[in-house]
Design brief:
Radius of gyration: 18 Å
Number of domains: 1
Order of helices and strands: HHHH
Largest sheet: none
Number of helices: 4
Strand content: under 5%
Helix content: over 70%
Low-confidence stretches: none
Number of strands: 0
Structural class: mainly alpha
Mean pLDDT: 91
């Protein structure tokens, strides 16, 4: 699994380098995107690990269906929060701020 994560990260970085070479983003934007992805992946992994004990407890006490509904709600909340955070980060990029109005 570690290899997959590293391979995906490397592909992400290579894609950003291509965007920079094409002039779609500048070096600051590239670094911001790499830093954001690294920080968010780590934070999400930590949050997911923290959910496991409570999920297992809910399975034991309330059954799998109830626990699955609970984890589904947590996953949606995480997704919405991560999406909003990503939108704020993207809106802060120089390429976005300096884009011509449509």
């Amino acid at each position: 699994m570690q290899y997959d994560t590293q391979a995906q990260r490397q592909a992400w970085i290579e894609g950003l380098a291509q965007l920079r070479e094409q002039g779609a983003i500048d070096a600051d934007d590239e670094n911001t995107l790499i830093r954001h992805m690294d920080e968010r992946l780590d934070a999400v992994q930590q949050e997911l690990k923290a959910l496991v004990p409570e999920y297992e407890q809910r399975v034991a006490e309330d059954g799998r269906e109830v626990a699955d509904a609970w984890i589904g709600t947590r996953a949606r909340e995480m997704g919405e929060r991560e999406g909003a955070d990503a939108r704020r980060m993207v809106d802060s990029l120089t390429a976005v701020r300096n884009a011509p109005a449509m």
